[in-house]
Design goal:
With about 140 residues, the protein is mainly β. The protein has one domain: Peptide methionine sulfoxide reductase (Metal Binding Protein, Guanine Nucleotide Exchange Factor, Chain A). It has two helices and eleven strands. The strands form three sheets. A six-stranded antiparallel β-sheet has the order 5-6-10-9-8-7. A three-stranded antiparallel β-sheet has the order 4-3-11, with no helix packed on it. The longest helix is centred in the first third of the chain and has 8 residues. The structure holds zinc ion.
Length: about 140
Amino acid sequence: MVQIYSVQKGGLIDLELIEKTESEWKAILDPITFEVARRKGTEPPFTGRYHNCHDRGVYLCACCGTDLFLSEDKFDSGTGWPSFTKAVSEQNITIQVDHSGGMIRDEVLCALCGAHLGHVFNDGPPPGGLRFCMNSAALRLRKE
Ligand SMILES: [Zn+2]
């Protein structure tokens, strides 16, 4: 069991970790979401549905529906990927060191299902200074 913050409930809820095989995920996800979220891919910049989205709401994990980011924490980073200053809750994400691509980066994963979401960098705006650089394909916006 893990504790996940629910925006609708305004508090932590207990949930079972979601574990599926690669073929189970492939059967329920669209191809780009599967490639990004389950195989740690990166969508080409400026191609996703959310980099230039200004709708209000909560960005959920495209795989399992966990609340991940609020539209009010989204900012225009100019990178072509949806960017946020912080997550809904640190409970809802897992950060791990990623050595792929000849770089050392902090990878951001969904805490409930392990989906690859993107990376977090230290060049974001003040006061927090963080830039969560996410893939649109790994997110789904629940509009307000
Ligand atoms: Zn998830």
